Amino acid sequence: MTGGGKDGGKGRLFTVGLVTAWYSSNIGVLLLNKYLLSNYGFKYPIFLTMCHMGACSLFSYAAIAWLRLVPMQLPRSRLQLAKIAALSLVFCASVVSGNISLRYLPVSFNQAVGATTPFFTAVFAYLITVKRESLLTYLALVPVVTGVIIASGGEPSFNLFGFIMCVGATAARALKTVLQGILMSSDGEKINSMNLLMYMAPIAVILLVPATIFMEDNVVAVTMELAKKDFNIIWSWATQKVPLQL
Fold first, then answer.
1. Which of 112-126 are b and which e, b meaning 16 or more Cβ less than 10 Å from the residue's Cβ?
2. Distance (Å) of CA 26 to CA 70, 99, 121, 181
3. Residue 124 has pLDDT above 70, yes or no
4. Under a CB-based contact definition with an 8 Å cutoff, are residues 10 and 16 in contact?
5. Can you say how many angstroms the Cα of residue 103 is from the centroid of all Cα atoms in its chain?
6. Could you tell me the residue range of the domain that residue 77 belongs to?
7. What pLDDT score was predicted for residue 236?
8. What are the protein's UniProt keywords (predicted)?
9. How many domains, the chain?
10. Is residue 246 part of a domain?
11. How far is CA 150 from its chain centroid?
């Protein structure tokens, strides 16, 4: 009994540490993105997202291939790879939209809108898997959505385009969660989160390269010029990762 209690305590401590690390990493990346896009004046959210995905590719591969934190898993079929690519597209949409919204909205309001993620998750879970939550769960979401609506009306820095982008990012994040849950729990195509990120991130980079070239004109020249003036910005781009994103 004593051993079980110790194991249970360690498990709870690990969970608390994991949740704390998740919150800390997300808040850190959010503040860094806000600094780069608004305070610093780097107005290229797609390129910023591409750096984010590139860092995710590098660090996830290092964690699996070099540090061996989890066993490496190969895609089991073309269909599974297609699903990962689709998930990567949704992932890109959520991060790009979120980065764009940070140019127009304060971080506090951005996070207030992000609190509606459970609402969108419940909606997408029902539409895709026909899974219904309990009535109490749906009722609990009502004050959250109502609070965001009220906050939107009273936000002095409200920007309609930024708000639309923020809602889009929140919805895409919820859709990613549902699709990711299906992919990670399917008996025939189960894959762990670290391997999923390792395959998603390079696909995202491939998708974002043409978008950056066509939609963010002269971004490479501007980036090189900024790097010459302040080399620390290279470190900021290199840390564009969310270690516990999945």
1. bbbebbbbbbbebbe
2. 22, 13, 19, 20
3. yes
4. no
5. 17
6. 2-238
7. 63
8. Membrane, Transmembrane, Transmembrane helix
9. 1
10. no
11. 26
